[in-house]
Amino acid sequence: MSTYFIILAAAIVFPVLLSFDKKVAFYRRWKYLFPAMFITAFVFIAWDVFFTRRGVWGFSPEHLSGLHILSIPVEEWLFFLVIPYASVFTFDVVKAYFKGMKGQRAASLVNLVLLGLAFLAMILFPGRAYTFATFCLMAVLLVLHQWMLKSTWMSRFYFSYLLILIPFLLVNGVLTGTAVPGEVVWYNPGEIMGLRIATIPLEDVFYGFDLILLNITLYELFQRS
Q1: Enclosing domain of residue 147
Q2: Cβ distance 216 to 95 under 8 Å?
Q3: Which is nearest to 90 in space by CA: 160, 167, 184?
Q4: What is the pTM of this model?
Q5: pLDDT above 90: residue 53
Q6: Is 83 part of any domain?
Q7: What's the start-to-end Cα distance of the chain, in Å?
């Protein structure tokens, strides 16, 4: 069993088991979750294939099963299902246990601050492919929520993302070389800012933000359609 697969299995086991908790009853909303996950996965896998072929990032074969689809390890495909599942589950747990959570003005302010950060990063690092693409998508999503969808659940999302960051950074830390010999995933230093949290490129925090926010956006929209 590959290192990458073991990491993913550890990340998904408890969210799946706890999906049947009576108060959250996450399994009842799988019909909205899975379409959201598959649509988002299509976007991010296309991104992944493009960046892998360009050498923006890559994968160390000693940590993989050796099975590939479109030059992407099978484990990487599973990443785009496992992490969103665990993350949307966390979002729904927050919804179930913190029903009175508001803070829409604070969420709008955070939207604007992050939007400014995104534009600054794109201006300062236009030639760094991972940096530019990550912050460009973040800017698009924030504009969508701030002025078009005017989402009322962004405060819940931000609180959830702070919780999600703990396991997300643990998973990414292992993938980028913390506590394992060598890296499962490597990054071309010419395509990132060079700022890291331990072994994790800072861009990964915002890449995770994009991945999870797009999943939750579609998940919420499907529930209201």
Answers
A1: 3-15+28-224
A2: no
A3: 160
A4: 0.97
A5: yes
A6: yes
A7: 41
Specify the length of the chain in residues.
225
- Measuring CA to CA, which residue among 149, 180, 215, 172 is closest to residue 2? 180
Count CA within 13 A, CB hemisphere, residue 1.
Answer: 6
- Phi, psi values for residue 223, rounded to 5°: -70, -25
Amino acid at 76: E
Distance CA 29, CA 27 (A): 5
Q: In sequence order, what are the residues at sequence separation of 6 or more whose Cβ sits closer than 8 angstroms to the Cβ of residue 55?
A: 188
**Looking at the 3D structure of the chain, how many domains does it have?**
1
d(CA 94, CA 100): 10
Domain for residue 20, yes or no?
A: no
Tell me, what's the pLDDT at 100? 76
The radius of gyration of the chain from alpha carbons, rounded to an integer in Å, stands at 17
Reduce the DSSP state of residue 22 to 3 states and report it. Answer: coil
Q: Is residue 59 part of a domain?
A: yes
Q: Is 26 exposed, middle or buried (0-12, 13-18, 19+ CB in 10 A)?
A: buried
Please list, in sequence order, all residues whose beta carbon lies within 8 angstroms of the beta carbon of residue 45, skipping any fewer than 6 positions away.
Answer: 70, 72, 76, 77, 80
Please write the tens of the pLDDT for every residue from 6-47. Answer: 999 999 999 999 999 999 999 999 999 999 999 999 999 999
Is residue 116 one of the residues assigned to a domain? yes
Which are the contacts of 52, defined by CB distance < 8 A and separation ≥ 6? 58, 59, 71, 72
Which residues touch 11 (CB under 8 Å, ≥6 apart)?
82, 83, 86, 167, 171
